[in-house]
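EI: anyone free to look at a 280-residue chain?
SC: sure, send it
EI:
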Amino acid sequence: MAAMGAALPGAELAQVRDFDADGVPVRFYRPQSEVLLPLLVFLHGGGWLFGDLQTHDAMHRILADRSDCAVLAVGYRLAPEHPFPAGLEDCMAALAWARREAAALGCDPARVALGGESAGGNLAAALTLRLKDTGAVQPLFQLLVHPVTDLSFDFPAMDAVQVPGLTRSYLEDVRAFYVGSEDFRDPAISPLRAVRHDGLAQAIVLTASEDPLRDDGEAYAAALTRAGVEVLACRLPGLPHGFLFLPATIPAISRAFDLIARLVHRYFTSSKGAAEVMKS
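SC: here you go
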């Protein structure tokens, strides 16, 4: 493990440190605080093919700084060298490590949540399903930012929202690299296709209006709601897929980070009253 300094303007953190989480590289971000902090285990996006602890470092710093919680970023294995289920297994191992080591990290073991964006949102949703199947404890809540939940890519927004580079043919190629020889309809790959969604952690599901994959998150939020899971779902206007990866110096991106921070803080303190956060 190696200690690192905080270099992002506006996100000065008390600690940024790399650890080996039972063979999975993780990076721990702790803001300035004298109290026991909640911990958000966060899974980056990148189509299961791209991204690592360094490429998404700024995102994780801002999440920790503005949400007033510790963040554990997970450097899970990527396709095509490591297709499904390698990445999911790494995320499960990292979550188990986070729960076991939370107190040693100065965090509250009773307040560990799970989040992810894009492909990371897919992995977070799939992980909650696997926890349920194995009888393990659910995270305090799940934060899903424009998650990919059905790899059929058959929802209307896929054709209605045209974004260069995020086309159906590109996504089908990404799917082939990630899924490998497995069936993409497996709920561990396409969480929306699970037979049942009851018993899962309460969820914050945020989608972006300018995203051909926005229907994925909204359909998943609806499935969770039908199953009796508490869900706060919101479509953020004017934002594209991957907006958390954009510079926070852009006012709209900064506002999105602020909203996420308020929601995360509220869900860590109480599951009630989240609607008031949306109004503030």
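EI: The radius of gyration is 17 Å.
SC: 👍
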